Amino acid sequence: MDRRSPGAFVTGFPIRHSRSPLIHGHWLKEHGIDGRYDAVEVAPQDFAAFIDRLRHGESAFVGGNVTLPHKEAAIALVDEADETAREIGAANTLWLNDGKVHATNTDGYGFLANLDAAAAAWDKDASARSAVVLGAGGASRAVILALRDRGFGTIHVVNRTPERAQVLADRFGSRIEAHRLDALAELLDGGGFFVNTSSLGMDGNDAPPIDFTTMAGDAVVTDIVYAPLHTPFLRWATAAGLRTVDGLGMLLHQAVPGFERWFGVRPNVSAQLRQVIVDDLEGER
Ligand code: ATR
pLDDT by residue (tens digit) across 101-119? Predict the structure, then answer.
């Protein structure tokens, strides 16, 4: 690869399920860019060496995405992790600049951009309202911080293991409150926003039914799970007459800042791109 055709990567272990090559491949083609985006499987014990080769320009990549299980390790290995990545404790986007490897985390950006695009005024009167977040795992962190930074008055984090929710409340500030699962019904009553960040409902797994009918009439319900696209949470919320936003848009929007950095063009999240991924998800069922 020569210098005129920049290359970016997505690395994880395993990496074959990643949809990132489809997303970035679509944009490269759309913009007629002579560049590459490659999936590179890197075992945990080899990840430090991978970052070293990137730093020294030996891999010919200008940057890339990191996914499981490297997102936390990346923070410690790069030269400059920005405040967002450090606060979340995980990075998903890397780039080279002046011989240094930089890192950020675009999951929170993707989460907000998806809602902004799909559910106008979803954050109306945020400071006077509360948001309910189900789940306190790795994926919840970017979501909780994004809601905090968007100005929600209280962010209720509900988790099967309440201690994990408490760790996040202690870490992310006084507007975050930790709860047990059995508090959910009460928290939803009159509420304006719910997001599932847990693995419940993923890949068709069961999720305990939730009654969304008590939420405010203009409430928005979203899920960061996108396989299946219509998760149990979204189906129940639709049945309750609420606005819903699926998780696929978050995946698409989180990819935007990385592409812009590596290839110099800010790409669009179009209906056509969305269809490419929907077709791929359906092909897998
Ligand atoms: P990720 O990094 O994808 O968030 P994770 O750290 O394993 O993955 O977190 C998974 C989340 O789904 C957690 O909030 C987990 O609850 P616990 O912290 O109690 O484990 C939640 N989760 C998974 N299976 C669940 C179940 N059967 N019932 C309730 N919550 C569940």
Answer: 999 999 999 999 999 999 9
